[in-house]
Amino acid sequence: MENSDRASALVIMPAWNEADSVGNTVREVLALAENYAVLVVNDGSTDRTADVARDAGATVMTLPFNLGVGGAMRAGFKYATRLGYPKVVQVDADGQHDPRDIHRVLAGLDQADISIGARFAERGDYQVKGPRKWAMAMLAGTISLLAKTKLTDVTSGFRAANEHAMAQYLDHYPAEYLGDTIDSLVVAVRSGCSVVQVPVEMRPRQGGQPSHNPLKAALYLGRSVFALLFALARKKSTVFTAEGA
Ligand SMILES: Nc1nc2c(ncn2[C@@H]2O[C@H](COP(=O)(O)OP(=O)(O)O)[C@@H](O)[C@H]2O)c(=O)[nH]1
Ligand SMILES: [Mg+2]
Prior knowledge:
This protein is of the alpha/beta class. The protein has one domain: Alpha-Beta Complex (Spore Coat Polysaccharide Biosynthesis Protein SpsA, Chain A), CATH 3.90.550.10. The protein has 8 helices and 7 strands; from the N terminus they run βαβαβαβαβαβααβα. The protein has a 7-stranded mixed beta sheet with strand order 3-2-1-4-6-5-7, with helices on both faces. α2 links the parallel β2 and β3 (59-63). It is globular.
């Protein structure tokens, strides 16, 4: 854990078969002027992700089999809490999240428990169109109502959390497919966490392959729309009142 001395925040990097890009991404983070510790959660990769990440200077936690981004993040939050990091930020291993924006995403925590790095400029391989675009707009609008703040990019994985949000995540962070994006946010907001978004730009993936299956992702978005409509139709329930707040 040589990289954790005096670190102001922990960068959690979920990685699944990212040997092509994780090394560069870790090096970019460690080269920043700010002092961040980097934890790569190697999620049952079958390539050299763990070795490459370690050689680049990250602490590597290897999960014995693939748990998905939600499970990997939950393991990362547990690690951060045990080691007493006051802030964490999730950064993709594929290089799409520009490490130079990390300080901006973390700065959002001055105003809220969760800070989302939101892409405003749709470019690179992030062009979404048709029903997917409508579903995302509708989800963003609905979650904005819940969070009482304008959110435009609720599926962004570039996000930071403070200790309050981490305490909530440890109990409730969804581990199912893609649940780390929308579901995690809805549950956190309903548990009393505040959210803010800050603008960032996304870069193209720096190597390897995207993990998402487009059909599964579309089904997930559709399911999220319905789940949210039902959640909104319900009266506020005491089950969701803030814990530990
Ligand atoms: N730990 C873990 N990380 C994953 C998994 N699937 C994807 N990732 C990581 O999550 C980040 C985003 O994945 P990616 O496939 O690029 O998704 P996209 O950017 O939304 O298209 C990358 O750092 C991936 O390595 C997984 O099953 N487990
Ligand atoms: Mg990606």
